[in-house]
Amino acid sequence: MNINPVEIINAKLYEENYLYRILINHQGKIEQISPMDVETNWENSQKIQVLDVTGDWISLGGLDLQINGALGLAFPDLRTENQHLLAKICKFMWDMGIDSFLPTLVTTSVENIQNSLEAIANFLPENQGAKILGVHLEGPCLNLQKRGAHPSEYLLPLTVENIKHVLGNYGHIVKIITLAPELDSTGEVIPYLRSLGITVSLGHSQANSIQAQQAFDMGATMVTHAFNAMPPLHHREPGLLGAAITQQQVMCGFIADGQHVCPSMIDILLRASNYDKGLFLVSDALAPLGLPDGIYPWDSREIEVINGTARLLDGTLSGTTLPLLVGVQNLVKWGICDLGTAIKLATDSPRQAIGLPGMDVNQPANLLRWHFDEARRELTWQRLGAGGREQGAGSREQGVGSRE
Fold first, then answer.
1. Pairing between strand 49-52 and 400-402?
2. Which range marks the domain in which residue 331 is found?
3. Is 299 a catalytic residue?
4. Pair 70, 78: CB distance under 8 Å
5. 178-220: per-residue pLDDT in tens?
6. What digits encode the pLDDT tens for the residues 18-37?
7. Do 207 and 139 fall into the same domain?
8. Which of 43, 148, 206, 342 is the most buried (most CB within 10 A)?
9. What is the total count of domains within the chain?
10. Are residues 210 and 86 part of one domain?
11. Is 95 within a domain?
12. Which of 284, 299, 348, 360 is catalytic?
């Protein structure tokens, strides 16, 4: 790609009281980020276009580390013959402000997992739109008592042998595994997974704080959907989540749809974690993401989606159909964190959780512009096109010109 350089000015980058300028070079990458009060002398400045965002926030696109499907396709149902549907999902995710994601495979048969991994592995070189960074395996080595909507007949004991069986020949594309650490009596599984470069996330677990701490000491660095499918915080037994919050190297994903976790509890979690330290947003969205409310098939069962919340027909909460960035808007609407922190929780923080750089130089300038309407108390976003140019329906064209 070879484009004319663009300078974005008067941009906020997570801090409320500071304005920045961002230079995007002819390769469409961020070349420099500087405070507005620092003079710059860009080379070939007469050819640089200027976009004045007038105090709006600028961020990278979202990264969703836990998403189970979209547009009617559940990722465990992927096969070689329908892997072309991933292209539509990647385009849809891009349009939803997502730069990249991890297709998440919930508990199912090993055969289904292997078939889905094969389809994703074959698709990776062809990826367009939002990028598939790998796979998140949510199971099948989970605690029966905290399985939630995961089918009990496919749960497996947590052993190295079972992990090898599940991964098969596709361990190289698995980036995260959610497991219940108390099921491993040998203490061998987490070190084995870490030796493969796989991030270990604790979830669907009955682990107490001691068991969780042992898992963190062995290399687990993540918690799957904080509060959900784990013991609650208790003043005498902080449990898995309590142990995680006190660990600087551990990051917790959480769902901000207003159903999985009460906003007041999210407020407590944010305060306990110093807001953006150790937390990131996930959607946990299911296959009906992008489709209207209704009843949909889900493995051999059915789920009913009402106002974006998905439940099994027996009432068990199974997920959501709200995109990741709705969680950002909810955090702001609920008034429990500032705009910069809310944006970071869906953009930079998930990248940090899997060791990727956030908003910084040399990153592709796949940028979002966030605008807060003070009168309506409403946060909206739009994607900036190649090189930081505004695009999309209803985009604001003010402030674009040539730099003299």
1. antiparallel
2. 62-353
3. no
4. no
5. 999 999 999 999 999 999 999 999 999 999 999 999 999 999 9
6. 999 999 998 999 999 999 98
7. yes
8. 342
9. 2
10. yes
11. yes
12. 284
